[in-house]
Amino acid sequence: MKILFDNSVPWGISRHLAGHTIQSAKKMGWATLENGNLLTAAEAVGFDILITSDQNLPYQQSFTSRKIAVLILSTNHWPTIESEVARVKSAVDFLQAGQVMRLEIE
Questions:
Q1: Secondary structure of residue 100 in the 3-state scheme
Q2: What are the helix and strand counts (H, E) for the chain?
Q3: Full-model pTM
Q4: Which of 5, 19, 89, 100 shows the smallest number of beta carbons within 10 Å?
């Protein structure tokens, strides 16, 4: 799968997603794109999943016609995520096109 990390997502997660192509919004030149524009740009170049910690995204966007799946992490704090990275990997492997999933990480 082709995965895009939003600006707030810690890059350390990428080490645990072997077999996937991962890119950051910043490296794509999309650091200033927000919400709908970011989703549209990501879909246009074939990303399958956007990983973000933007809690408001589901309330600001309609996903009914989207092809990209979205994984929303409840935190962007790497030490907290690192202990739960297996759950992030499972969520990535589970998500299908157009789905939105919020993953509570404690």
A1: strand
A2: 4, 5
A3: 0.93
A4: 19
Domain boundaries, the chain: 2-103
- What pLDDT digit, counting tens, does each position of 8-56 carry? 999 999 999 999 999 999 999 999 998 889 999 999 999 999 999 988 7
Yes or no: say if 63 and 89 are a contact pair by the CB < 8 Å rule. no
pLDDT at position 62 over 80: no
Place of tokens 């299908």: 96
- CA–CA distances in Å: residue 101 to residues 25, 27, 28, 54, 67: 19, 24, 23, 12, 14
Burial 68-77, CB ≥16 within 10 A → b, else e: bbbbbbebbe
